[in-house]
Each structure stands twice: as C-alpha cells, then as structure tokens.
Amino acid sequence: MAKITYIEFNGKEHVVDVKPGLSVMEGAVKNNIPGIDADCGGACACATCHVYVDPAWIDKTGSQSAMEESMLDFAENVEPNSRLSCQIKVSDALDGLVVRMPQSQH
Amino acid sequence: MSGTGAGVVIIGAGHAGGTAAAQLRQFGYEGPITVVGEEPIAPYQRPPLSKAWLKGEADADALALRPDSFYVEEHIALRLNARAARLDRRAKTVTLETGETLPYDKLILATGARARRLELPGADLAGVQVLRSAADAEELKLALGPGKRLAVVGGGYIGLEAAASARALGAEAVVLEALPRILARSSCEVLSDFFTAYHKAHGVDFELGVTITGFEGAGGKVTGVRLADGRVIACDAAVIGIGILPNEELARDAGLECANGVVVDEHARTADPDIYAIGDVTRRPLPLYARMHRLESVANALEQAKQAAAAIAGRPAPAHEVTWNWSDQYDVKLQLAGVAFDADELLVRGNPAGAKFAVFHMKGPVVRAVEAVNAPAEFMAGKILIGSQKPIDRAKLADVTVSMKEVAAG
Questions:
Q1: Smaller CB count within 10 Å for chain B: N or C?
Q2: What is the pTM of this model?
C-alpha cells in the first residue's frame, strides 16, 4: 500500500492508503475524496482529474504523455507540476505522495 | 428543506442516477435519498463494458462509480433488483413491481435507455445478444477468445468497440451494416473511412449495405447470421449494436410529455415541478444549437445530474456545458465535442492516413462540432470554441503548422 495525501483546494487533507496498480485518480474516487471529478473514468479523455503534484514528488511520478500534455494545455489554472491523476499509476515508490486539487475541474 | 420529509427518490441506478445522488449530497442536500435500480449492482460505468473491461484491462471494482462505503457514509439508500412500476403524481408516490410504495418530495427519473433488439427469426438463440449492461458484457466476454468469431450487427460505436476488443482477445470479428458506410448515424464520412480502414488493418471484416434476415443455429446456439442475399456469415456469437431506446414508459404513463425522450427544461425539470429527468432518457434543450435533442453520453448524464441536484438543493444552476464523448478502439483515442447541427462545411485538420487528425464541422467561421482522432489539442480547443461560438480563421484551422492555441486565440 502507498500512503497518499490528497489536499482539497480549501486545504482539507485526506491521507489514505492506495493499492499499487490503481491510479492516483482511482485512489481518490475509491476513498470518497472530493475534488477530482474524473468524468471519463480514467480514459485520459476529459481532463477533469487535474492535480498539482507536490514538488518533492515530481521525479517519481514520471512525465506527462503527449496525450496528457495536450489535454492539460487547455485545462484551467495549469502549473508546471500539473498532472492528470488518472495517468499516475500508484506503486510502492509513491508511498508518501502529496497531491493538491485545483479549485474546479470544470 | 421544504417537503414532507420523504426526500428525493431517484429511479434508475446508472451513471446518471448514481451521480445525481452524490451531487445532491455535495450540494448540501440533507434529506433522505433513495436510489431504485433494476440491476443487482450499485451504479457503475458502462463505457468500459465495450472497451477496457471487455479486453480484460479493468476489473469489476474499477467499473463501480463509487465504493459501496460511499452510500453508507452519505446515507443514500440503494434499492437494487427493484423496478418501478408506476408513478402517482397526485399522491407523489412511486410503486415498485413488488407493490411497495415509496413517497417522494422530488423525483428524478434516470431510467436510461435499452438496446434495440432485432425481431428476426433466431434472435432468441443463445449467443445472440445486446451489449448494454455488465451482465451483457460478462456473457459476451465468455464467448470471445482465440478460434472464436464475433459477428457485430450494426456499425456504430458500440459494435466497433466490441469488434476491436474481440480482436484484442484473439477472436475474429465481422461487422455487418445495413447502410453503405459504418458510423453513418453519428459521424462524418471521413471518420467512417478512417475507422473502416483501421479495423480492416486489424483483421476485421466488413459487410456493408447488407440486410439481415435472421440467425442460424444448432443445438439452440447461434452459428451464423443469414443475409438477404442468401449468404450465411458464420459466427460463434452475435452482438446487436443498432442503437438504444429511451426507457420513457414510466413517465409517459404518468402523463409526462415524451417525444423520443422525456421532455425536460434546462434544469432537467419536466412539466411537473416535482419531477426531474436526467441522462439518456431525456429530450433536452441544447442552448448552443437552439433545439431539443436526446443525447446519449456520460457527459450528458453528468451535466443533467448536476442540473437536477442543484435545482433540488437550491443551488445556482451550473453553467451549460458543451456535450462531448469518446471512444477507444485499438490504440486510437477518438474524442467528440458538440453536435454537428447546421454545419455547412467539413474542415479536416491533419492527415487521416497518419491516424492523427480532426474533423471540424463549421457553420461559417464558427465551430459546431469536432471529431478528433488521437488529437487531444484539437478536441480541447474545439470544445472551448464550440462553447464560445467565437469566429475563427478557417485557413489557420486547416493548417497543422498553426497551433490550436494560436487558432483559438484568433
């Protein structure tokens, strides 16, 4: 299990254990954490699971695919540490990961 | 909260109904919420049933819209394996098939749609099926594998996704379509040609412009599809993907206006102020296109779930969204936005032969719809442009060396 901290836009923290193999998006949805909509259910088709990866974890979460990068290009409030959380696969190496949610996914 | 304390009853536990329940809580609604669903499982996502799930890339757990704990924690009563038989709008009750009566303050109809079936000889043979529910998908998956052959009746998105998934599982696939091209009902010819070629390159056979007269079988199980020209297309399973019909009977029998869908306004409300309808079952206004239409998509279900929940919870109406959808076939990601109403020009950006392009449906200088193949920037920018209705430079749009950011900036 990997411990992941999800921080809502209003600052509320949720610390949960997520099974390796799931995506960071699924970790939020399965633990009833608000702030990640994931309208397409993880198909990288909608850009509504946008998160900001804590700077300390950017290397470990990997890089954006070309698809993801193009989707994020047109999302709102994108920062250099923006990712689509459906595209980050949880592994033991991400134990301790911290992600923050934007104000809105729409 | 006004009302008798009976709360909100949601009929239908699909993507729309499940989302409406969750949105009501998110919007601060504190009354009782009951979700009535015919299927034995909690609300789940249907899109993967013909895509990732069918290929074995997603499990049942991944299909669930929310974990079971969600409904417990949020005090949402799930009444599964239950079917609503009738509404009494005067008494404000729903009667289930068991005879049990549920009172409501507000009712949300999220009864969805059902797959159209073929009333032809042999359609009741084992192995002839539709693909709509998790149970349908389970049945289909069992029939696929190396050495098997799937006949897909209907060249629409569901059928094409099933064909692609069958190939991924090692089965052969043949698509039978009554019209001269696939995707004729929903998409432009450029897209039809692209997907026909792409599927052929992946070993799928096509029989276009054919009429099916029935199914052949042996021992009660399908062995082939009979065509009007006398041929029999051999298969081990046949999946019928010829569209869906709205489950509007409950509403119609209660005197609510239906016209290929339960008629609702921009708040997802019917003419009865206490009854809303959301998702595939509705005929709804499309403000961008100034007309009523029935949409079949997750995006529509989510948007209307939000509209109904906001209205019931006394929240401001959410902003209108540009409708969108997607399809996964092989390594192709198709993303669609808008509806191609009133378009007078098709503009292709990129090269279909390179499997990375987008078709823009234009009305003069305004984008009405976009079909994007492996082209996420075109989809995202197109969706924004459809919503803004901002006139753009068509020559720039057709030129792939001009970025979509620049096109959108005008």
A1: C
A2: 0.95
